[in-house]
Amino acid sequence: MTRRILITGGSRGIGRACALHLAQAEAAHLVLLGRDAKALAETAEAIRRSGGTAETHRADVTNRPRLAEVAREVGHLDGLLAAAGISGMTPVDGESDAYFDEILAADLTGPWNTVRAFLPRMGPGGRIVLVSSVLGRFGVPGYGAYCAAKHGLIGLAKALALELIDRGIVVNAVAPGWVDTDMAQTGIRQIAAATGQTEAQFRTRAEAAVPVKRFFQPDEIAHGVAWLLNPANTMQVGQCLNLDGGVVQS
Ligand SMILES: NC(=O)c1ccc[n+]([C@@H]2O[C@H](COP(=O)([O-])OP(=O)(O)OC[C@H]3O[C@@H](n4cnc5c(N)ncnc54)[C@H](OP(=O)(O)O)[C@@H]3O)[C@@H](O)[C@H]2O)c1
Question: CA dihedral in degrees (167, 70, 84, 218; nearest 10)?
Fold first, then answer.
């Protein structure tokens, strides 16, 4: 039977690449969530062009009533990928707390809201993957909010995994390294500006720090995500799969 997989952040970047991969390689039906209706429609159209099926729902993961509404509209779900997220610098001596709150709301409370809203749509055999980051594994100066959210997400995956395993639902996280998306471009621009380098200089140094010496493409992340979303994965439970080219080895 066709598996039905919901992806937050399915409109762009890693979420979009996972959606395309799951549609093409596994013939899954995709339920795509995001805030930008046009970008969502474009991803759904790309899936249909490749022979797959998809539906879109405009929703902000920080908006619980809206998620509850969408949960009433979607049918049964076999998989849930919480990929929606934002990033940015929040220096501790910065002028405002607003961006710290915004990042925590989208990147940590958002996945919590998503799991809470759609869990009633999942039964035994369900699979949940939360997208953390290498910044959920170590700290980076100036990225307090993002690091806190992404470390928190790994803790959330561990706790939910134990809470839901008796229902036959398997929860894990993934921790990608640098992936070529809009978010990475913004990160490169911000860090280069903050450290007095050109974007090209920073990128060269960042790539040199990765054991495989390069950034990744979003569709490369999709393979690892697809494994954790697959019912064949019965052994990896409450883990965080590093998808970073060797940066983190534990
Ligand atoms: N790129 C990297 O190097 C990297 C590395 C490690 C981890 N990650 C993580 O991977 C995930 C995807 O990142 P990306 O690189 O693909 O970023 P991206 O290209 O900027 O895409 C972000 C996605 O999240 C959605 N989104 C953001 N805030 C949202 C909200 N409040 N409600 C609903 N959707 C929201 C966006 O859709 P709309 O704009 O339509 O809402 C978009 O689809 C994030 O969790 C990120 O932290 C990225």
Answer: 80
